Amino acid sequence: MRRRNVIGKMSLLTVSAVLAVSMLGGCEKQTAAPDKNAGGAAAETAKPTAMPTAGTATTAAAGVKFRPGTYTGEAEGKDGVIKVEVTMEQADKIKDIKVVSQTETAGLGDSALETVKQQILQNQTLSIDAVSGASLSSGAMIAAVEAAVKQAGGDLTALKAGGVKKPNEGKTEQLTADVVVVGAGASGVSAAVSAADKGAKVILIEKTKVIGGASNLSWAGKFYNSSVAVSSGLKVDVEKEIADWIVNNHWRVDAAAIRQYVTQSGQTYDWLKSKGYNTTFLNFAGEQLHMLPPYETREPLLRAMLAASVEKHGGQVLTETTAKQLIADASGGVTGVVAEKADGTTLNLAAKSVIMATGGYAGNKEMVKEAFGFEGVNGGLGQNIGEGLEMSWAVGAKKPDNFGGQMLHQTLARATSKLKKEYSSFEASYPLMLSYLPNFMNVGPSGARFRDEAATLTSVAAANTSAFNGPYHLVIVSKPQLDALAAKGMNGVKAPSLPGMPPEFYADFKDKFKLDNPWKNVDQVMESMVKNGDGYKGATIEELAKNAGMDAAVFQETFNKYKEATKTGVDTEFGKAKDYLLPMGEQGPYYAVIAEVNNLGSVGGLLVNTKFQVLNDKRVPVKGLYAVGLESEGVLFNDTYVGNGVGLGYSFTSGRLGGVSAAAGALAK
C-alpha cells in the first residue's frame, strides 16, 4: 500500500505499494517548512550585509566578478520553493551557499541539493549535471543560486561555460558476479538478499544514494494469509480470491502469476521478519494489510539486510551507479551490465544472471502520455524514467500486449502548493479536502457529470474514474455550501467521514483535521485559488461555465439535473445515495476546484513467467534476464492497477522469489 494512505471508514483503502513516492504532489515526506513569504521561481532578494561562512571553493571561472556580500535566491523545486543564501567574496569567488528553506524529498531531493552545492563551490561553475533521480531538485538549486549570482553582478554566461569533468571519466573497471541486480527498491533489495542467501555472489547497483526506493515512502502491503493474519483470525479464501481477481481483470492476466502471488506472499511476511524488517498486521475492513516499519528506520533496515547477506557473501552494493545497457552474447543471452559511477568510471559488470528492478517509467511524462494517454501528476519517484525497460527491449524482451497500465491513486488539488504560501496548511488544503468528499458534484472538462461521487471514498476508484474522463475534473461548490463549511466544518455538509487522504497530506494539521472544525477564511481561500489560476469562479452557472472553459449548454443541463436530484433524493443518472446529495442552494457565486489524478507508478513493461524470467516475442525466456517489482507487475493486471496493498506486497514477494530463481540459473551454469 502506498503513500501512507489511510482512508475513511467507509472506503476501502487502495494501497499501491511500491511507489509511494509519493510522493509524490504533496505526498512526500518533508524536511523543512516552506517560507510563507516565498515568491515564485527564481525570485530575488538582495541582502546588504555579507554573512560569510567557511567555503570549499577553489578557483573562479575566468572573467567572473561579483559584488562581495550575501544574496538570496529562490526557485521552485519538485515539492516547493528552494531558498538559498549565497556569499561572494574577493569579487571573484562563490564562498558559501546556505539552503535557508526547502521541502524536497528526504534522502533524495534534499541530498541532491547538498551535492549540487558542493559541486558549485568546488568547481566555481553553474554548469553542473543534475543528480541522478533528482533532476527537478537539482535544477531548482542551480536556478536559485543563479538568481543570487545575478544580483551580485556575476556573469552567468561565464559561470555556465565549460562544465565539471568527472575525475574518472574515461576509466573502465571490470567486475564479475553471479547475479547483478539493477535497482535497489523493495524488489531489488529482496532479490539481491535472496540470491545471496542461495550462495550467489551478488552486485546490486542503484543510481541514487538511497536504498529502498518508493518503499521508504509507502504505507502498507498485502501478504495473503501471513502467519500473523491467520493467528489474528483473518483468513482469505485463496481460491475465491484468485477467481475473482482473474474475472475482475477480464481474464487478460497470467493466472499462474496471480496464484503464485496469492499463495506465496504470506511467506514473505515471515521472511522479512526473519531479516529484521518487521511489518505490523492491520485488519482493514477485512483486508490483510501489513504496515511497514517506521519511516526513518526503513533504509537502515534494508541496508542491514544487504550487509548480512550480499556483502557477507562477497558481493557489493554500489549506489550512485547508473546502468547504461545490457551486455548480450552472440546467441542473445544477457551476460552483464554496463554502468557508470558518479565519478565517471565505466563499470563492465559480467554476470550469469541479471535482474531488472528499475521501478518503471512513471517519471517519464512523455512515455506515460504515449503509453497510457495520461496527463496527470507523477506522485512516484522522479528517477523512474523507463531506462530499464528500454535496455531490456533492446536485447529482445517483449513489450507486453497490455503495456501502458499505471498505478493511479488518490486525488490532488492543483491549488494546494501555492495556497500554502498564503495560508496555514489546514486552510490551504480546503480545495484538496473538497475533492475527497462525496457530497459535491464532480464534472469533467466539458461540464458533464461522469460518476457517482461516492467513488471519491476509494482511492483507486476515484483516480481511475477521473482519468477515464480526462486529465482533470472539477469539483463544483456553491456559496451556501461554503457557508456551511465555514460555520460547522465538514459536519455542515454532512461529510460521512474525514477525507481519505494519505497521512502526510494532513500531518502538519492533525489537530485541526476534524469533522466539526469550522473552515475559517474559506471564502478568501477559494478567491485566492481562483486568482492563482488553480480554479474558477462564476456569479452564475453560465459565468462559471464560461470561465472554466466548459460547454455552457452541457453544464447547465448537468447542473439542473443534479439540483433536481438533491431535491428529490433520487439520482437518476448515477444512483448516488440520498445521504450524499447535498443541496446547492439558490445563490452564487459558484466555484470549480481543479482536481488531478496522482500516478504512483507504471505497471509492467516486461513479460515474465513464474520464475521471473523475461520473455521475448515468442514468449521464450531471454537467457540470463529476470525482472521483478513494477517492471514485471503487468502479469497481474489488465490495463491498470486495481489492487489494495498489492504493489508493495508484490515487490517484496517477486524480489524474494525472483532472486532465488536468478541464483539457481546462475549457479547451474
Task: Please give a structural write-up.
Helix content is 32%, strand content 20%. Helix 1 (109-123) crosses helix 2 and helix 18 packs across helix 19. Strands 5, 6, 10, 11, 12, 13, 20 and 21 form an eight-stranded mixed β-sheet that branches. Strands 14, 15, 16, 17, 18 and 19 form a six-stranded mixed β-sheet that branches. The protein is α+β, with helices and mostly antiparallel strands and 669 residues long. It is built from 20 helices and 21 strands. The longest helix has 22 residues, at 646-667.
List keywords for this structure.
alpha+beta, 669 residues
Low-pLDDT segments: 1-62
Number of strand elements: 21
Assembly type of the chains comes to single chain
End-to-end separation = 38 Å
